[in-house]
Amino acid sequence: MSMGVVASSPGARAVKQRRYSSVTAMTMCLAAKAQLAGYPRLVYCCDFLATDDYSSYEDVSKYDVISAELMALFSGPITAGTELLRLYRKRLAGVAITDDNIFALLQSPMEEFRKRVSERKTESPPQSVDLLIFGFVEAAPRIFYIGQQHELQEHPMYCAIGSGAQAALPILDWRGLSSMSRLDEVVYAAYEAKRIAEAGPPVGKKITLVAFMEPNGPSDFRLTVIPFDDLHYLAEAFETFGPKPLTPDWCLPGRITGAVARSNLESTTSDSKSPLPSPE
């Protein structure tokens, strides 16, 4: 993997703990296909919010390079997510990923993780962890989802995981993204979806990561992270193109809502007729 513009995550740290959390996963991670001058790109966006048994943190890096071709983002408890990413890195190390073997390769580490968790003695069932896996396989963009309680699925255009996914996905749907959408458009849509998701179930607001990938040969990729100092361009676009509050003076015509000025109530009432036919 080669790196383009890379911004280090302010204060990002790995939390090393061995217990597993029963706290609901609070995060938003997404990946989407795009193109630049006809060449494929993959955009991804996430927050840095994660939990353990005792607290939540907004400085946890939840993404990792798991092979020469693929990256992954996790949703779920910190220790579970980091352990699962480690299993994927170990399984995919030195393996050439192809169209023929990718499904088997991506299922194997999750099966091992499920077995490990089932053999552990815990007072309560551990919170499950989900993975969003994406990259270039034989130079073609691919996006996959797999969960501790969900089988491997491939998504044709985009995918989101975490508590913020239920808010983010409708925005991506509304934007009408496709694999041929412009890189700039998809980068903005990913940022917009994350911003809107912040208003719903807990999604981290302190740090937003927006980045994109491009193939760099048949079994490698180049990663470009949009510097945190440049996110203001996306924030400004959100102010222009994102949802707007209604102005206080906007309203529907009174004939629709029945809200009329008291001085006009009598004339409006006498002029109003029911749209329903008379029973006679």
Could you walk me through the main structural features you see in this protein, from its secondary elements to its overall organization?
With 280 residues, this protein is an alpha+beta fold. It is built from 7 helices and 13 strands. It has helices spanning 78-92, 102-119, 165-175, 183-197, 231-241, 254-257, 265-271, and strands at residues 2-3, 29-36, 39-46, 50-51, 56-57, 63-65, 70-75, 130-137, 140-147, 150-154, 158-161, 209-215, 221-225. A hairpin with a 2-residue loop joins β8 (130-137) and β9. It starts with a strand and ends in a 9-residue tail after the last helix. Mean pLDDT is 83; it is low at 4-24.
- Structural class, judged by helices and strands? alpha+beta
Query: How large is the count of helical segments?
Result: 7
Instruction: Give me the strand/helix succession.
Output: EEEEEEEHHEEEEHHEEHHH
The largest sheet, given as strand count, sense and whether it forms a barrel, is: 6 strands, mixed
Q: Give the low-confidence spans.
A: 4-24
Oligomer: single chain
Spatial sequence of strands, sheet with the most strands: 1-13-12-3-2-11
Mean pLDDT level: 83
What is the approximate shape? globular
Question: In angstroms, what separates the terminal alpha carbons?
Answer: 79 Å
Helical residue percent band: 25-40%
Number of strands: 13
| Gyration radius over CA | 24 Å
Tell me the fraction of residues in β-strands, as a range: 15-25%
Give the topology, please.
Layout: E1 2-3, E2 29-36, E3 39-46, E4 50-51, E5 56-57, E6 63-65, E7 70-75, H1 78-92, H2 102-119, E8 130-137, E9 140-147, E10 150-154, E11 158-161, H3 165-175, H4 183-197, E12 209-215, E13 221-225, H5 231-241, H6 254-257, H7 265-271
Parallel strand pairs: 1-13
Antiparallel strand pairs: 2-3, 2-11, 3-12, 4-5, 6-7, 7-8, 8-9, 9-10, 12-13
Helix pairs in contact: 1-2, 3-4, 4-5
